[in-house]
Amino acid sequence: MTAASANDAQDLAWLLRGLSDEVPAIRGSVLLSADGMMKAAHGLDRAGAEQMAALASGLFSITRSAGARFDGSSEVRQVVAELKSSQLFISWAGFNSVLAVLADAQADPALVGFEMARLIRAVRPFLHTAARPAPTAGDRAAST
Question: In what order do the strands lie in the sheet with 26-33?
């Protein structure tokens, strides 16, 4: 697998726009790598999208740890947080990829979850994120 190019990010942003078109209550969405690097975003400014990616990565990771400890599996399907005036949905989106969606409080969670799952199922191979290569001894020496 290769890293996403700028054109890939634009194509993925188009997919996220389509998700917002299907569910107008969606205020913003971010596709990110499991380690929190933003791949594409829609409806959020760059700083907001990067912060959403970091938060979603952390929540996803914590939930994986909870699953491994208490459910016997680190597989996470979806994390949902109900905030005062918003709902946050975080779903596994393919190899090393996560989709985070911020919706209005009035959004139907079943509809948001359904449309997220439908998008992910339709384009999952394009959402995969290549694993980062492990640092070598030369990389570590160069960073010191």
Answer: 38-42, 26-33, 97-104, 86-94, 78-82
- CA triplet 9, 89, 95: central angle to 5 degrees? 50
Cβ(63)–Cβ(79) below 8 Å: yes
pLDDT tens-place string over residues 79-101: 999 999 999 999 998 888 899 99
Distance CA 37, CA 32 (A): 5
Which domains, ranges and CATH numbers included, belong to the chain? 6-129 (3.30.450.30)
User: What is the rounded (10 degree) CA torsion for 10, 16, 20, 21?
Assistant: 60
pLDDT in tens, 8-28: 555 678 889 999 999 999 999
- What's the whole-model pTM score? 0.80
